[in-house]
Design goal:
The structure is a single chain. This protein is α/β, with parallel strands linked by helices. Helices cover 23% and strands 17% of the residues. It has one domain: Collagenase (Catalytic Domain) (3-Layer(aba) Sandwich), CATH 3.40.390. Helix 1 links the parallel strand 3 and strand 4.
């Protein structure tokens, strides 16, 4: 059984782009990355417990309405989110959960509330959960992703692509607008991960994660239902 480890904090050191982290105060200095050609690893921020990444994730998506006035718009939203999720599935294992409570990533169809008086179309919120005392040490990332339905389908897909990058451990932003993880996006929605996005994520996946967070595949599948 997991319990909440840390509270949500707004990080003033990161660009304001619908991003909220729940960290134990400050990142560990030893985990910060040096700049490298071809990616933006140095712009990512770990938690004080390690990088909030996993080799596989349990994901729950808010279902679309089956009928009624909202059904068509819900389906458009769902198709755009699924397209974004498929891009990340090329790089990391994603298990689909039927249970919101058991998922490590929850994707909600809602406009994020104002943050410091600013509106956004998407937001990812990270919390860390740990198991009860006496059990083997384990800290698990839990992320709530809010994607506003009040956008064009391509904008929804671009927003989901960006926020899912945060959800899967990329807590930081690229400084180049053509990247999916750009802090300041360009005029055209980015619908695919760039080479820099992919290189940064591949580097991240090679870093040490949170204690006990990467269980075996069998264990992950048992917990994802």
């Amino acid at each position: 059984m997991l319990r909440r480890l840390s509270r949500r904090l707004n990080r003033a050191s990161l660009p304001a782009c619908g991003l909220v982290l729940a960290l134990a105060l400050f990142p560990a200095r030893a985990l910060t990355a040096e700049a490298a050609a071809g990616d933006y690893r140095q712009r990512l921020v770990p938690t004080s417990h390690g990088w909030p990444k996993r080799q596989s994730w349990c994901v729950w998506i808010e279902p679309a309405a089956a009928d009624g006035p909202a059904a068509r718009w819900d389906q458009l939203w769902l198709q755009a989110v699924e397209a974004a999720l498929a891009s990340w599935a090329e790089l990391v294992t994603i298990h689909r959960s039927e249970s919101r409570e058991s998922a490590q990533v929850q994707i909600l169809r809602r406009r994020p509330p104002l943050q410091r008086g600013r509106a956004s179309h998407g937001r990812a919120e990270l919390a860390l959960a740990t198991n009860k005392p006496g059990d083997p040490p384990k800290i698990e990332p839990r992320v709530v992703v809010s994607i506003s339905p009040g956008q064009r389908p391509d904008a929804i897909q671009a927003t989901a692509l960006h926020e899912l990058g945060h959800a899967f451990g990329m807590w930081g932003h690229s400084d180049q607008p053509q990247d999916a993880m750009a802090g300041v996006p360009g005029p055209t929605p980015v619908l695919q991960l760039t080479a820099r996005d992919r290189a940064t994520f591949i580097w991240l996946q090679q870093q040490p994660g949170l204690p006990g967070s990467d269980a075996t595949s069998a264990g992950d599948q048992v917990g994802c239902h």
